[in-house]
Amino acid sequence: MKKIVEVKNVTKCFGKTTAVNDISLTIKKGSTVAILGPNGAGKTTTISMMLGLLEPTAGEVKLFGEDPKQLTVRNRIGAMLQEVSVIDQLKVREVIELFRSYYTHPLSTEELISVTGLHEDVLKKWANKLSGGQKRRLGFALALAGNPDLLFFDEPTVGLDITARKNFWDKVSMLKTQGKTIIFTTHYLQEADDFSERIILFNNGEIVADGKPDDIKNNISTRSVSFQSRDKHAAMTLVESFEEVIHCYEKEDRIYAVTNDTDAVLAKVFSQGLPVKHVFVEQGRLEEVFDLLTSKQKGVL
Ligand SMILES: Nc1ncnc2c1ncn2[C@@H]1O[C@H](COP(=O)(O)OP(=O)(O)O)[C@@H](O)[C@H]1O
Ligand SMILES: [Mg+2]
User: 293 in ligand 1 pocket by Cβ < 6 Å?
Assistant: First the structure.
């Protein structure tokens, strides 16, 4: 296994806030990895440290076995960050040319333009006058400028409409087939599930799950038993006391008992004579797994 990214016991504090707390991970060549987590989980901070833009408070980051700030490393990476700041006083085409000039083996300007779909009229605009969507396209072009082996995208699809989103993921799929290593952050579960082969789930600056999307879903095979009851309070109190029930909640007049063992929960519900009706067993939703892992129930895995 060729390790492209190595993060060893990395912590980052901002004053009293611990944004990232003692995380370790490695990413191998050619993989597509989603860093998933709610806002404030530490995703951007982690990416920034991988890129060498932020210095860890403790621990060590290596890209291609070297310090991320090394020029040889910089030559092989590209990034599209959350905050796209473009240089004033330059037209779009000039910004692209400028970025290309930083790299030893850049893609041609024409290639970048065609990949990112920037139209001729956009290329003539001042870079700081672009719309949000156009800025994102430019950001994408700049990330690809050096024809990098390793790409970082921080929340790449926030604010994009469905067409633009699909377009972006189509482009990423193409980069994948070229053997690029791709790391992206998202707080959209579905996106992580659809487009990555590995999800690293962050919460409160820590990694709470790491694995293939299907394994993450299956391992914590949260299914639920749900029902209606005329005495919801009593039903909930009782169901909550079952040792097989991980978590219990009420939604739209139904009580949901999240569990790994729906058979046992059903058996108990009936054997204890609970006045229930319209009983359903449901496959755990991805959202449920996400909520569970990022809620107070830390260390489920
Ligand atoms: N420059 C900074 N100064 C102070 N606190 C910061 C800074 N950057 C991030 N944080 C804090 O660190 C935590 C993680 O932030 P961030 O990495 O941006 O999360 P995410 O990208 O997952 O939303 C948050 O509590 C955030 O407020
Ligand atoms: Mg962020």
Answer: no
How does strand 77-80 pair with strand 150-154?
parallel
The domain made up of 223-283 is a member of CATH 3.40.50: no
What's the rounded Cα separation, in Å, for the pair 262 and 222? 9
* Ligand sitting nearest the alpha carbon of 155: 2
**What is the model's pTM?**
0.80
185-223 pLDDT tens trace: 998 888 898 999 999 999 999 998 899 988 877 765 568
- Diameter of the chain measured on Cα atoms: 75
pLDDT in tens, 93-124: 999 999 999 999 999 999 999 888 888 899 99
Is the beta carbon of 139 within 6 A of some atom in ligand 1?
Answer: no
Domain 3-217 indexed as CATH 3.40.50.300: yes
Which atom of ligand 1 lies closest to the CA of 82? 21
Using a 6 Å cutoff on CB, does residue 43 contact ligand 1? Answer: yes
- Bridge partners of 255, per DSSP, are 227, 250
